[in-house]
Amino acid sequence: MELDKSYDVVRITNGFIRLYDEATKTYGTAKSTGCLGSLSTESETRTVVKRCEGEVVEEVTIITALLVTFTGHMPIGVLRDVYGFSNDGLKPGVYAIGNKSKPKKGIYTWQAEDLYDEQKKFMAYPNMRITSGYAFSHENGAEEIAEVTISFKAMKDELGNFYYEAYEKELTDESVKTGWAQTFDQSLVELVTP
User: Fold this and answer.
1) Model's pTM, two decimal places?
2) In this prediction, what percent of the chain has a pLDDT beyond 70?
3) Alpha-carbon distance 175 to 184, whole Å?
């Protein structure tokens, strides 16, 4: 990996989500997040200031979370799962969202490809929760099918990290490459010394 060169992302693909089951306290099977249109990430920060005699003498900005926005075409089943749709007490095939519905947290992973398809970048958000409400818009006669936009907050995991990335050429452990999309968790990437 040449660290003095830029990584020019032209496509983000291979997105998966593993939702957390509150009842069993485990993560479920990875499901495809569908066709991604765009993915953006921005740090949420707070600033700690030290003053001496009324003057700022030191200032430190601390990242408290990452704000992530997904735009794309998500499969119906996954969309229902992440927003907490339920058919409890309803006839088969009928699902509802109400004041008891709670968006689920999960582990989200994607893979980026560069301009020349020479290098893949693996990306993971290990502790994400939806922060936007359920919304949709349909337009008759539109020339492009509307994408769904979902906002997430990436919070720290057990290791204190909000986000992980790895470039394929830097990875020496084959299990990290093969397990990233389907089985990502901290144990997959954490260095364990004997």
Assistant:
1) 0.86
2) 96
3) 10
